[in-house]
Amino acid sequence: MSTLRFYAIKETLNRKPVVIEEKERRSNLFGKNVFNEHAMRQYLTKEAYNAVMNAHEFGAKIPRELADHISTGMKEWAISKGVTHYTHWFQPLTGATAEKHDAFFETTSNGLAIEKFGGGQLVQQEPDASSFPSGGIRNTFEARGYTAWDPTSPAFIIGTTLCIPTVFVSYTGEALDYKTPLLRALSAVDDAATAVAKYFDKSVTKVQATLGWEQEYFLIDSALATSRPDLMMTGRTLLGHTSAKGQQLEDHYFGSIPSRVLNYMRDMERECMLLGIPVKTRHNEVAPNQFELAPIFEESNLAVDHNSLLMDVMGKVAERHNFVVLFHEKPFKGVNGSGKHNNWSLATNTGVNLLGPGNTPMSNLQFLTFFINTIKAVESYEELIRASIASASNDHRLGANEAPPAIISVFIGEQLTKVLDNLEHVTKGKLSPEEKTDLKLNVVGKIPEILLDNTDRNRTSPFAFTGNKFEFRAVGSKANCANPMTVLNTIVAKQLVEFKTAVDTLIEEKKMKKDDAIFNVLREYIKDSKRILFEGDGYGEAWEKEAKKRKLSNYKTTPEALKAKISKKAITLFEEMRIMNKVESKARYEIEVEDYTKRIQIEGRVLGDIARNHVIPTAIKYQSVLVNNVKGLKEIYGNGFTKMAEQQLEIIEAISEHIEKINEGVTEMTEERKKANNMNDIEKTANAYCENVKPLFDVIRYHCDKLELLVDDELWPLTKYRELLFTK
Ligand code: ADP
Ligand code: MG
């Protein structure tokens, strides 16, 4: 009997839900472990408090002399909650979060000890961080990257550690993390959107990009997960025959949540409350053992931090409940994968959602302005949007007919399509009073009603307007949202700058009225953006053909898709908008290309190992059983055995054939890996992994999965899909 597998199943069957007591209201718990306004008022002097708030609201620099006050206040607050250590918390380009803990504890010359946390330690640190990816920006010789406090995201406590959100940059100022370019992009979109919003309301002084992510994930019992080396090493199953029952009965989606899972969710949500992550919804997703949670949306930088933090917390809480959380985009073949929809909008400091309807024609013209500019931005930079969500794991999902396709398009619904059709025919130049009245009454004026009724949702669209926000659905479940959000906010910023210039030119040079000028510019944008609008079935072959005609990109693999990041267009965009210089753009590209290679390389090694060291030996063991059986039959029945052994002989032969194919496949894959590794050019290596190594996974898997169906269940060492996905 295969010991580990059956031991794991037994463990799982004996599990009881972990008891979770919720004594306090969640609203009371909310933000308790966050150095938020409430805590700051208690622990900071008025000057220090104002300095942090100014930095938070207006990006003002914190005077050095106040940093000491702030750090001392922060330390006192943290110690009052049992904290002993602090860390700069950052998001290097590995995709995970990073922390290096230091104790507050310090000795003094007289042999005594104190707790200390100076302003310098709060503001800037130099972790020995030479092992993070830098894309050649720092060679290890010049390994000095430093972390710097981001006062726009509040410090928080995990366990006994005070975590201070920071950016991570090289000694020469280049970004080495996800947060730095995001902050720059958010500032760019703030400037550009504020300038445009002022056309409609002079009192707008700030625009924030908002983000509400929806996190999908799988929960697998930890004993079962540990019995699968592929899950543990790569986050996905590299082989395994699909279970007879998968998601075809559609009985999991929104079904009643199993008790063990529900208690996990409650425990995790409680942690989220303490950390100020405003989680709100939870439900079963489509695939068995797949779930989703979503928070109330927040300012984007905070929302990105909260998502990174959440993924970390989810993993930690899962341990207490004997679960492993899988964030991989496609952990199991044959059932749905996971995504992370990024709901995005723009909100003014006056409390207006710029992508929401208003009650006056003017506020609806404002809505249309931001709506159409976003569409135009996506149209102009569709390749960059595609590149922003490219990864080895998301390749399994995009275009796999269950998730958005690899072709980027925008869905806006029938009603708004009609509105754009009307606007497209607005007269060139000044509008007659009659035309304006008609537009205001019948087109712009009807928008609130239209949006309320915007219920036709197209799940196959990668970028859909959903009533008061855009929903970027192609983002991977494992991804750091900062990457796609940096791109989206940058391209919208760039687009709004262009829009403002165009409108101002018409006002100044053609002496047009403001609304005439806006209508004129929007009309041209509608014409220009048509190719990106698509309302049909994004999974269909017809769309692939149509998209090709429209000259939309359709990059199915990461190495292809990533190239857009170093196109002249992209580099210029990021330089112009002051998000990243050329060195930074190139470095990021290299890191992502190499990440792709490494992930496929690891998968290849693990698959080779499992195929040769688990599957083949097991198949041989079972084959020997059959061979002995046949021998026995021959011994007893002499020549008459052939009829009786017919089926056994067939299986014996089939096993040999599969073993042969698996062994050949692994040998070939290893050869291809060697070739790829020796190419000395990261792009060529990545392509070789994509085109020559990865396809062999399917061949090897096919034969392993066939053997799974032939070999005695008791001997099979790898926990099966039906056990992984259905044992509660
Ligand atoms: P659904 O679209 O699933 O019916 P909602 O419209 O309530 O549900 O919201 C879905 C997600 O969109 C939630 O995570 C929510 O926080 C987010 N969201 C709603 N409004 C905005 C907004 N203005 N900006 C960013 N995210 C938003
Ligand atoms: Mg969902």
Number of contiguous helices: 25
Provide the CATH top-level class of the largest domain. Alpha Beta
Mean pLDDT over the full residue set: 93
Biggest sheet, open or closed, and with what strands and sense?
9 strands, mixed
**Poorly predicted runs of 5 or more residues:** none
What small-molecule ligands were found? Answer: adenosine-5'-diphosphate, magnesium ion
How would you name the CATH homologous superfamily of the largest domain?
A: Glutamine synthetase/guanido kinase, catalytic domain
Give a verbal description of the structure.
The protein is an alpha+beta fold and 728 residues long. It has 3 domains: 31-176, Glutamine synthetase, N-terminal domain (Ubiquitin-like (UB roll)), CATH 3.10.20.70; 186-580, Glutamine synthetase/guanido kinase, catalytic domain (Creatine Kinase, Chain A, domain 2), CATH 3.30.590; 595-726, Up-down Bundle (Four Helix Bundle (Hemerythrin (Met), subunit A)). Helix content is 51%, strand content 11%. The protein has 25 helices and 17 strands. Strands 9, 10, 11, 12, 13, 14, 15, 16 and 17 form a 9-stranded mixed beta sheet that branches. A hairpin with a 4-residue loop joins β16 (463-465) and β17 (470-472). The two termini are 22 Å apart. The mean pLDDT is 93. Adenosine-5'-diphosphate binds next to β9 and β14. Magnesium ion binds at residues 214, 292. One of its GO terms (biological process) is glutamine biosynthetic process.
